[in-house]
């Protein structure tokens, strides 16, 4: 099992990102913690799943001109419109 977290500053845009992530995960795998401003994803550790999360977050960041911190396990990455996250 892997714990994936996406921290956002602008919580008004969270529903859109949650909707994108719901295309990859069941709703029961997703939650939003208002106190920490984090979307939490509980998933099996599969490379395609992690890539799907990164792609969804990266597209959301670019379209909304916002940044987000993506944490996978004990590693964190910042995604910003001008700095795409390289995967692979």
SSE blueprint and pairings:
Elements: E1 2-8, H1 14-21, E2 30-33, E3 38-43, H2 47-64, E4 68-72, E5 75-79
Antiparallel strand pairs: 1-3, 1-4, 2-3, 4-5
Helix pairs in contact: 1-2
Annotation field: number of helices: 2
The topology string of helices and strands comes to EHEEHEE
What order do the strands of the largest sheet run in, or round the barrel if closed?
A: 2-3-1-4-5
Main β sheet profile: 5 strands, antiparallel
Structural class: alpha+beta
Compute the separation of the termini in Å.
20 Å
Q: Compute the CA-based radius of gyration.
A: 12 Å
Query: How many DSSP-defined strands?
Result: 5
Query: What percent strand?
Result: 25-35%
Description:
By secondary structure, the chain is α+β, with helices and mostly antiparallel strands. It has helices spanning 14-21, 47-64, and strands spanning 2-8, 30-33, 38-43, 68-72, 75-79. β4 and β5 form a beta hairpin. The longest helix has 18 residues, at 47-64.
